[in-house]
Amino acid sequence: xxxxxxxxxxxxxxxxxxxxxxxxxxxxxxxxxxxxxxxxxxxxxxxxxxxxxxxxxxxxxxxxxxxxxxxxxxxxxxxxxxxxxxxxxxxxxxxxxxxxxxxxxxxxxxxxxxxxxxxxxxxxxxxxxxxxxxxxxxxxxxxxxxxxxxxxxxxxxxxxxxxxx
Amino acid sequence: xxxxxxxxxxxxxxxxxxxxxxxxxxxxxxxxxxxxxxxxxxxxxxxxxxxxxxxxxxxxxxxxxxxxxxxxxxxxxxxxxxxxxxxxxxxxxxxxxxxxxxxxxxxxxxxxxxxxxxxxxxxxxxxxxxxxxxxxxxxxxxxxxxxxxxxxxxxxxxxxxxxxxxxxxxxxxxxxxxxxxxxxxxxxxxxxxxxxxxxxxxxxxxxxxxxxxxxxxxxxxxxxxxxxxxxxxxxxxxxxxxxxxxxxxxxxxxxxxxxxxxxxxxxxxxxxxxxxxxxxxxxxxxxxxxxxxxxxxxxxxxxxxxxxxxxxxxxxxxxxxxxxxxxxxxxxxxxxxxxxxxxxxxxxxxxxxxxxxxxxxxxxxxxxxxxxxxxxxxxxxxxxxxxxxxxxxxxxxxxxxxxxxxxxxxxxxxxxxxxxxxxxxxxxxxxxxxxxxxxxxxxxxxxxxxxxxxxxxxxxxxxxxxxxxxxxxxxxxxxxxxxxxxxxxxxxxxxxxxxxxxxxxxxxxxxxxxx
Lengths: 165, 515
Known about the structure:
Largest sheet of chain A: none
Helix content of chain A: 55-70%
Largest sheet of chain B: 2 strands, antiparallel
Oligomer: heterodimer
Mean pLDDT of chain A: 81
Order of helices and strands of chain A: HHHHHH
Structural class of chain A: mainly alpha
Low-confidence stretches of chain A: 1-13
């Protein structure tokens, strides 16, 4: 179809665009379904009247794989009507959010609640282009105060403010 | 039977009005309202953030508080939709259509007032329906064996998958994915560790809070960081503005009743989400109206009906959740999870065994709705200010609260890792146009579905006909079949119409998109 080609040509910059989205979606479901069925088949399956632990996972996996195939097959007919707004990938925000959670876990283990609190709010705040390092610093200090007052002092959480290992 | 219900309800009021229960209910409503107002935060994130707090509490105040958070945040969502055109809460997206034009006309206060009246009316009707319907449902529910439970859960899952927004097939795929996530952990019958990837921490199932906050917190942040546009402020609402005039009341009355009816109907149906309910209420109102052209330009009916429907649905939703153990939507799934964590098995026995909890909850709805009205009148100015908190401050603080909240569920850092993983998975799913809400439904129902399937087939010695031989179960199975057949029919018709339309478009204008 002519309509499809023009749109495809101009949207090539998107790895995921509205035309191949359903192919990826179907493939992903097929992959997850087969993986689950394969893993499930390693537990004992049993019989219908005496199901083993593997029966339910295998049947769900097969079902999901079939749905995945159906999604991919239906990809052409389910093209959304209006032109979709192209969203540029937001690497800075994404990386900062993921990094901030990892930082909370690592610093929570080797450092304690307070460093972890500072890290999660500072790093994630830096992910937003509207924040300067000063405003991020201010926000994380406020969070540290809340953390000490609410979680450590008022709710007595089982998480020392400072610890090692 | 109804007399008994009324006596029980009276007791329920006694329970709900006990000072510490009332306090938690109030706290829930306040926090729910507060979080619901914040842009990008909904009932789901509010409940899952505060869920860990309830682990140490007595079941009754815990459930009262969670329910309070639920309808509080629902109300908060309406404020954002009406005053700032922020459709951050999908069920309220439709309220924006007419609510925001009303604000621009300087009638935002009236719209809020109408919303408040409608919510209260709808909630009251919902509560009355609960009082009459639940004893009835319980008498039927006692006839439920494993086969019936399995079939009705199947129906709930199917509704949850197909009735969510977007492609039905993708919704079902997400439901199945949720069921698979529900399998992770130790099998109760044999002790086999399933899908644990060799991690000891996973042998005790995936953490409900981590799952919910991953899919509805982190995914949402990943999606809207640096993309959230803050809408200009300058809205001021005074107390005086909130009282609607007599003419406006008259105009909103029948839409309110219709919305309430639609919400009640959809609430009783398991699996239908709140978003679809409000959209249908709006569509019906537009169809019924003599002046459909006013819709979208500030018609008060367009605010009254959807808001009423969402609130009556909320109340009625508790019936299948509490009496059958089948949550209507993702939020109900979360509340069901909270009940199970508290050691209360939802089901027909719940009303008789935990009468204080059930009727206390019903009574607390009424009290909570009164509290909401009282709370919102003086605090409306504060909510408006809160609406303008920039997203760049909001999401880092929310991330911190998520991390601490998830940590406190088990006092372990492992669950925070789960949040990150689910957040990333959710972001991929959302990018591929999958709805994530059915995952939660599947996750909560998964173990129950498997258990009842096993039992039903054990009793029937492996004969699948058991699901069709028993009348109640057969009814549910045939509704499921109808639902699937209907979906296939509509999909085929849609693609046929589209093919015809697009071939026409191609003839008319060869290149129609400049994108």
